[in-house]
Amino acid sequence: MGKIVLPPLKFILLSILSGLVFLTFSLIYHWGQWVSPSLELKNSLLIWLPSASYSVILPSVSSGLLFTFFSYRKTRINPVAAALTAAAAFFIIFSGFSYTGSMTDNHEAISFQPFNERKLHSIDNGIIYSDSINENNKNIVDGILIRANGSDLPGFKYYQSAELIKNAHPELEIDEGRSIDITPGNPVFHETFIPGSILGSYIADIDSLNETFRAAASEEGSQFIILAAAMTAFLLACMLFHGATVWPLLDFILILGFHRIFYYLLSLFSRESDFINETLFGGRTPGSIPLFTLASVTLIIFLFGILIRLTGRRRSA
Amino acid sequence: MNLSIPKRFLIITAAAYILAFLFFLVVNNIQFSEKTVDLYFKTGWIINRTMLQFFEYLIPVQGIAILFTFSVFYPKLKSESGFELLTVKAFNSFVTVVIIILLSLTALFFTGSEIFKPGFHKKLDTYVYLTKASRAYLEQAETAAEDGRLFDAEDAVKRYLAIKTDDAEGEALYKAITARIENQYSAAEPGTAERDTDIDSLDLSYDDALRLAKRYLELEDFYSAYYYAQIASGLSGSNEESKSIRSRAWASLSKTAPSKEETEEFRLFSDKKRGTELLLSNKPIDAYYLFNQLNVEHSADPDISKYLNESIRETRKLTYFINEAEDALNFPGFTDIAFLNSNTDDSRELIFFGKMVTMASGTYFEDIETVVFNPETGIKNHMTARYGKLSGDHIVLNGIDRENRNIRIYPEYLTADKLPELYNTLKLNIDWTLLHGLSSSGNIYKKMSLLELIKFEPVISDYGWMVEPLYIEIITRVLNPCGFMILSLIMIVISWNYRKFTGRIPVAGFILLPVIVYITALFSETYIYAMRLLCSWIFLDFGKPAAQILLASSQIVLLIAAFLLIAGLGTGERRESA
Which among B371, B440, B500 has CB closest to A145? Predict the structure, then answer.
């Protein structure tokens, strides 16, 4: 009984554990995209809980499966236990996206210090400067002086905004009905939270996949079931590589590599869906391109995994 | 070859370092684009970028070396029964040495990163700047040459050649322009001579010249009398009256005038006296022009040379030489520097420098703009200046030409409630060595060492800048060497725990090397990013002390955990198939 129940329980536990770790970092990451000195920082972290939640579902399930199957690499996992684990993975993906997919971040709750409460000074000839003294950051000069749009008037040539001006006000009205385009300033903190190129592209691809799942969950009921099932099948197919070589660490890295390639392909196909639709299917909509990709990749990996395992066994025999 | 693990580790590490360096070298060679960097700088750009990437990816490179050392190429010990064994004792014997090696590598990584990386960043920016500048100068030279503005063309091509010395295209253009200038001069010479003749004749009639000669003779202005009598004689050579006036004037001149040598000596003496008086009366610029002229005529005179240098020294306190500023600003420096120079209740002063360059001859500024304003009433002073030069704690804003006293540059006051006392100077309330840290072009903090950042951190907010990004950069810099050590130890644990379990070396491991490299790089980047994210969030939400505590405690806990994991490795002997 323990051989059957333990693996799915282990999987659920590991998924929750890795999910919590991912969620913590995802929350800080989302918060980092918005944070600025004028933001009410103290209560802001949970505002991004919805988007952070659905973004960690797939990585958590992947990690849960990876570590569960890795822990059973020496002793074969019971087929019933594997099926139960797969069912649990499917359930988490399906219910996770169904529940969080329709949730959106409450951006209204993001409390910026209103723009017009900062000291904005309108000076002759359309030149303005703005400066503010923040409680935490004394002497901050945000947007020293701004030359009016395309104006040849003498003005400060320099514009440095310490603020991330993301909160509306694309144009700022100044004297005599003239306005100045306030494009998002220099989001100082945002730059601080940008990940490196390798991780950044990975996060972007996972985000793309999340969006696909989220859209499917909120719009196409039956297709989302197939999509979630295909994703579970793909993740399980990857597990065939545990024990594929004589080097366990290589197996682990190989599976991570497959995940990475798959996320990249899916993101690429989503971006180029029109082109693929046109060239491969002659303009006829083949249903969901992500689903098609998932099914194809899963099949390839499954066959490849079987092949590797068979040859591996023969060699070790 | 039966090498011990520490030796294998050192060899594999060296191999990984070399391979990584060669990999980046090849990649950068392929990625090099003439669009942004000129071919002239290709070698420098590739080497600097390769070195920069080498340091940036050293953590995963080290991780891969550990992975192969402890997971693939570990030595086997044969037991009496013929089974390959690796005992706890054996592991403990080499792991201590490996940890010592890792500590040394961490120290090298930290020192190397802090000493060299800011320099690599600066160099790469420099190549991009010099490419832009040289292309602009070449274009200017070609356009000016086409338009016939040969001196402008010569100036531009000289600047181009100052950047790209020995450039064949530039030298050919320079030769062509100078040849055209010489041709123009030689063609212009006869015309000049004609003009001189015309001027000498003065278009006077004989009567007028004679009348003027008489008049000056009466006034005892013998030089003028002689001069006009000479003209009258020239107009009518046979006239005795003009000859007579000329003779009388010459006789008087001969009686009163000193010899030619005496006159010259006297003039030199009086000029030197006037120059020193100008210097003493605090007019060094006038003194400079005087001594500069005298130096052309009497270059061997030690007094002139001495007073010329003295006047240059004093002049530089009040002004700068325009050509020196232009030559210096030709070179790369720090751009877009803006800061709050002073901040009182009723007045704030903001300063902007388009560019700052420090050379042996001094620190020069370009595109200077300052505004002094009252937060309630508006702008009090608004000034722009083309160039400036640092002199003590202030910047001199007016420039002079080396030769022509009529060419000067002054600051322009667009708004001024009253003329400031020091009209031509700008007082800095900041240590000028910190100015580069206030540049907003690119990520300036990447070009600063950790020591510079730590020095800058307490004062940056005084100049209107936020301290948070700088502090987060400090956190990142501290995390990197800690990450190097912690990740290396974790890699030992993972690699050793999940090493290959037969004697064969898996071929797939080498075929899939790019995947291993990628996943290791992803793993290390994720770790460093996660730590930075966490520390930054704690810092921004809970303040600096909380961030410091988290930073220190997290690194200590992770380090202890990694050591404990290593200590717990192989608690039992492991039998491996032969």
Answer: B371
